[in-house]
Design brief:
The structure is a homodimer. By secondary structure, chain A is of the alpha/beta class. Chain A folds into two domains: about 80 residues, Leucine Dehydrogenase, chain A, domain 1 (Rossmann fold, 3-Layer(aba) Sandwich), CATH 3.40.50; about 120 residues, 3-Layer(aba) Sandwich (Rossmann fold). The first copy, chain A, has nine helices and eleven strands. Chain A has a six-stranded parallel β-sheet with strand order 1-11-8-7-5-6. A three-stranded parallel β-sheet of chain A has the order 3-2-4, with helices on both faces. In chain A, strands 9-10 form a two-stranded antiparallel sheet. In chain A, helix 6 packs across helix 7. The longest helix of chain A has 20 residues. At the A-B interface, helix 4, helix 5, helix 7 and strand 6 of A face helix 4, helix 5, helix 7 and strand 6 of B. Chains A, B: It catalyses: (6R)-5,10-methenyltetrahydrofolate + H2O = (6R)-10-formyltetrahydrofolate + H(+); (6R)-5,10-methylene-5,6,7,8-tetrahydrofolate + NADP(+) = (6R)-5,10-methenyltetrahydrofolate + NADPH. Chains A, B: One of its GO terms (molecular function) is methenyltetrahydrofolate cyclohydrolase activity. Chains A, B: Its EC number is 1.5.1.5, 3.5.4.9.
């Protein structure tokens, strides 16, 4: 058996097309949505991702401003910059890129992002609204997983989903989104005792750990749907997922890396920016 | 086999004793912590619970003010009253009792509770801080489950826990607390397809649904730890848990209703009030 490919390319293109036409309509009325990305790292993968956001924003007509505070930025500098952009009426969407300098906590810093502009759902207030079932921006990656499954018509209600990775950026908010869709959700992590047993009984497995090839066919029950969220740098400069290539022989469907969740994430981030502008 | 009883009585008494001595110390310095409970219902069980909080508060020396807005209260009335108490420096702890009048959403209303006074962890901001790992008051019932398991030395790290019930008041915040303690957590609910299969593989099962006797021995694996959070009114005026009595023959340990999580919840609520006062 070879897994059906859950590509994100087509969905990302259709989200981008919709965003582009909304931005064009706003521009015709003299308004341009602005997305501010605050970054404070020398990390190569992060820089690559920020450049790809900026490029994609430009193509859709969104004004993307990258504020690079450098890897030595103090927490207070980052906090102030986020507070400033939160208060600036010309900034519609605001995100803080990770990783952050040692000594800066994402949770602490994200409190300075206005939830109304929090297009990557990082602020504790946004996470709380998600838990409470109030309207909120979900982290773009978590939203992309659900959007990708919907696009490929994978039913969620009543199904058993195992999420591997309990980060505040992906695992925990994704659990909220899937619960809201009536899935039975298990959150696994590095301290889970028998990971193959836990993931092996799930109908849908989402890998969001950040370790190349962590999930092998021993972790996946035949025919399961596997969503790979991992983006680990490969030696050749490419990307490796958290799911080992052999899993494609075992799974019923598999979202690839690259070309799965990634492009959808960027597309949703830009859609969020236009939604944040209210246009 | 008969299950070991995970009584909450002893733990509740010890938490109350600690709170009482902290309140006495504050009172000696002329300060009395105040807990304001806003209620807007004619529900009998709710009225009973509020009276028991008020009684327990009085015994520990906390000034408990019950604001009864009546079952006809409009959302705006409830919101205003919460905002007022949030702004009042003489109010240290503030909670909104459920159920609420039809048309009032707990999530919407709880936004008017200052997170610093939110002793029952209902505000979306408190829930978000919990998810993000920032200091926050957890809902007292969710905190009581973990405290009870700790008191009876039930290890959590690496263990499989199934929570039945995905409410914002218990199930979802409890999942966050258990994840922070390195448990592998599954959230089940009314749409879970094969509940006995899911709960039957867990080492710890928490029932927080609100349906008397929903969990039978078919749901519990022999020797598992079972925590009953249900408080369903019985015909004789007493309380029935979500766990059927027969489970005590199957489980390795069981927290009873009444006398398990309930008294610990009230005790923690009062401790939260003293912590909110900062004394």
């Amino acid at each position: 058996m070879t897994a059906r490919l859950l590509s994100g390319t087509e969905l990302a293109a259709s989200v981008r097309a919709d965003t582009t036409s909304r931005v064009a309509a706003a521009a015709a009325a003299g308004r341009v949505p602005r997305l501010t990305v605050v970054t404070a790292t020398a990390d190569e993968a992060s820089a690559w991702y920020v450049r790809s956001i900026a490029r994609a924003a430009k193509r859709t007509g969104i004004d993307c401003v990258v504020v690079d505070l450098g890897p030595q930025a103090a927490p207070s500098e980052i906090h102030e910059r986020l507070a400033e952009s939160s208060a600036d009426p010309d900034v519609h969407g605001l995100m803080l890129q990770t990783p952050l300098p040692v000594g800066t906590s994402l949770a602490e810093a994200a409190q300075f992002i206005d939830p109304a502009k929090d297009v990557d759902g990082a602020a504790p207030a946004s996470l709380g609204r998600l838990v409470a079932g109030l309207p909120a921006f979900a982290p773009a990656t978590a939203a992309a997983v659900v959007a990708l499954l919907d696009h490929h018509e994978v039913p969620l209600a009543g199904r058993e989903v195992a999420i591997v990775g309990r980060s505040t950026v992906v695992g925990k908010p994704l659990a909220q989104l899937l619960l809201a869709r009536d899935a039975t959700v298990t959150l696994c992590h590095s301290r889970t005792r028998d990971l193959p047993a836990v993931t092996g009984r799930a109908e849908i497995v989402v890998a969001a750990v950040g370790r190349a090839g962590l999930l092998t066919s021993a972790h996946i029950r035949p025919g399961a749907v596997v969503v790979d969220v991992g983006t680990n740098p490969a030696e050749d400069g490419g990307l490796l997922g958290d799911v080992a290539p052999e899993v494609s022989e075992q799974a019923g469907a598999l979202s690839p890396v690259p070309g799965g969740v990634g492009p959808v994430t960027t597309a949703l981030l830009l859609r969020h920016a236009v939604e944040a502008a209210g246009w």
